[in-house]
Each structure stands twice: as C-alpha cells, then as structure tokens.
Amino acid sequence: MATEIELKLQLTPQAVRQLAAHPLLTGLKPQRQHLLNTYFDTANLELHGYRIAVRFRKKGWQWLLTVKSAEPASGGLALRSEWETPAHPGHFDFSHVDDPELRSFLDRAVTQLQPVFTTDFRRTIWQVPFGESRIEMAVDRGYVESNGRKSPICEIELELLSGRIDDIFGLTRQLQDTLDLRPSIASKAERGYALFANAPDTPFRAKAAILDASLTPVAAFRNIALGCLEHFQRNERGLITSDDPEYVHQARVALRRLRSAIKLFAPVLPGDFVSAYGQTWRTLATALGETRNWDVFVGETLPPIVAAFPHHRDATRLKKEGLRRARLARAAVAHMVALPEYPRLIVEFTAAVYALQDVLPQDLNSFARQRLKTRARQARRLAERHAELTPAERHRMRICFKKLRYAVEFFSPLLPPKRLKPYLQALSHLQDELGLINDHVTAQTLLDEALQNRPVGPIHGWIAGRHALLVGEIPEALESWWEQKCPWK
After folding, report:
1. How many helices (H) and strands (E) does the chain have?
2. Which helix (H) or strand (E) holds 446?
3. What is the CATH number of domain 219-482?
4. pLDDT single digits (tens) 341-381
5. The pTM is what?
6. CATH architecture label of 2-199
7. In angstroms, rounded to a whole number, what is the distance separating the alpha carbons of residues 57 and 31?
8. What are the φ and ψ backbone dihedral angles of 157, each rounded to 5 degrees?
9. What is the number of other CB atoms lying within 10 angstroms of the CB of residue 26?
C-alpha cells in the first residue's frame, strides 16, 4: 500500500500556458500521458458511501486496477491510501489490497460492480525538486463524463514523493505569486458521482469532527480546524454563483466554528498562531455577518411586518431597500472570495495547521472536560442574572452559549451519547431563542439604516413588542438547559 499526500489546485487554461514557462520548471523535462479511467460501484453506490474508489485505468498500452480510500480533504490537501496493480479490464482481483477488512468488503461486492462514470484527460508531469523534497507536479486537462453529461477538468495535483509536507505548501506559494491557483476540495471521482446522480449543488453543512481519545489536543484541533475549513470551502462556489442565502449562512457558520475552535484550543496552541489566525478571518467573517443579517431581515423578519402592515408605504419601501442591501452585501462577499488573497489565505492557514506541534503531551479527555467546564461556567454566570441583563449583556450571553454549543459539538465523539443528545437539544433550543431575540435587535438597526432613521412608529412598535415577547420566553428555555446533566461529567 502507498499513502498519497496531494494538494489539488484549480487553474484556468491561460494559467496552464503560463505555468509551462515558470522558472521552477526551467530545465525539467516533462512527461506526457493520456489517461482514460472508468470508475465502478454498486447500484446503490455503496463504495462511494464508504469513501472507496475502484477504477480501471488505461495508461498507454497498460491497464491498471486501482483501489483508493480517502480521508477528508481540506485546503486542497488530501491523504489517500492507494493500491494499484496491472490488470485486465473487467477482471476484478483485489489480492493486492493488503487491508484484510477492505479486501473482504471488495470481494463481496465484485458481482455487483458496474461502471458509473469515466474521466478522460491528458496529463503533463514534472518531477520538481523543492526544499528538502521531491514533488510531482501533474497538470490534467480533459473532462469527466457520466450518462452523457460532461464537466471539464483543468487542475494541478502536487504529490509529495519524498520529503516534507511543508514543501508542498512552499511550492504552492511560489506558484501563487504569479498564477491564479485555487485549492480545490472535490476530486475527479466526487465530480463523477455528482454527474452520475445529476445532483445540483447544495449548501454544505458541518460534519462531526473525527476524534478519538488517543489523539493529543493539538491533533484534535487539527482535525476540527480542517473540518471547519472544508465546511467553508464546499460552500465557496455557492457564495460566488448562487443567490441561495443558505450558502452565506453555512459559510458564516464555518468561520464562526473555526474562530471558536482557535479560542477553545488556545491553551495548547502557539501564541503567535492564535493571535494571527484569530484575527485573519475577521474581515471575511464580518462581511458574511452583514450579508446574513440582511438575508434574515428580508427572508424572516420582514414578511410578518409586511403582513401586519400591508398598506403601510414604509413596509413596501423596507422590502425593496432590504433586497437591494442584501444583493450588495452578497456581491461584496463574492468579490472577496474571488480575490487572489483568498486562495493564498487558504494555503497559508492549511500549512500553519499542519505545522503545529505538541509542546506538552496532554490527555484529550482531560483537556476536553476542562475546556467544556470553562465554557459552561462562563454561560452560567450570565444565565443566572438573565432577568437583569442589559441588551449588550444578553448578546454576550448568546455568544457564550454559542461557544459552548460549538465546544460540545467538537468534542461530541468523546462524550456519552445518552447524555449528549438531550443536552445538545436543550442547548440548541436555547440558542435559537436567543438568536431570534438578536435578530430583532439587529432588525431595529437595519430598519433605521434602510429608512435613514426616519421614524416609523407602528413598525418599530411591532418589532419592540415581538422582542419583549421573546425575552419573556428565555426563563423556560434556560430551565430546560439547567435540567440536563452535563455529558462531560
């Protein structure tokens, strides 16, 4: 078995032509290949569900049978286990797979395997010495096809043949100085499956972190941070091309989770990492927050106002102005993601996360309990005074509960499910109630901004009344949370 460490980057055909003349490739003789691949799976796509790929590849005159099992990718970087052997097309012999459990699974599936999609592309390869490493740079151009549907391929794969992961990022940074290269999450196989299913793009939601008690806190942070980064990257295209507000919402949640994770793990992270990347994402997070505020105002807060005041001229004006502001805010986010600084940030942050080292060994279970206790204590202090809180303090309480929820979700693989589920349900309900209150506070500000502080008594009064009603529901939601047993005790 070989383990691949790859960084995948999207580029334009123009950038491909520029790449061939790059100084890093001076004097290096490229190899050229035509690769035709057919991927197989069961009718219910069982292999895809387990993140396993099986393909026959025609490479020149030779046919190869390849099996891959993939770990989640973030920042464009993927770690994959791969088994490859010469084969006859259509003849499945998995004796070269040295993972007994995987081989047994594949042997059972043989009779059900059928072609799902093909990839057909031309590959140009350079063996690039860089730093202490030898890196294979492969430029692929062609297409993915399934059921008559095609999607173009134009990408670079950087594979570490020997040396250090750091050098892959160093090489990428040098290339990004002159070329528009963007880290890519989706593999060719993933794109092929999407074509096979004819599935439209949909907003991507957070997945549970891959944790177990054997990890160190730094290793746990790495998995969590890269998961947050993947959450953001998989919504990136929707931020640019779609008007669906859920893309903005999910991208914003991804960055909030990421920034919360940095603060949560700050005791075991280098101070310069925390100070640098605790702030680096703020500009983009602020822009997403503004866009989300207008989306919520237009899509959730405003409709009942318009229904309550159907003939009020300011209600119509509010809707028109809110839609305009939402479009402008979304365009600003799309512009930021399209800037060359954004893909460089993705590479820099991914490199920094992989470079983190454990300074002092610490048990992850103990660290998780300690941090969860701290988060819960911070929330409880404000919750006990909820009846006397100012709006600013209530906002701070909402943030404390949000941080607590994220922390519980991050560490959920380490916590007993029987206690975890009701605790998270109560916490989510409380956070939703506090979120609605915050939406109405924000609505007051957006209302003044949209109408340039012109008084609109009935509408302001409606929002104020709804706000008071929601505040009155806080004690019940808090009581439900207080009744739950902490899952980390």
Report:
1. 17, 9
2. helix 417-450
3. 1.40.20.10
4. 999 999 999 999 999 998 777 899 999 999 999 999 999 99
5. 0.91
6. Beta Barrel (2.40)
7. 17
8. -120, 120
9. 7
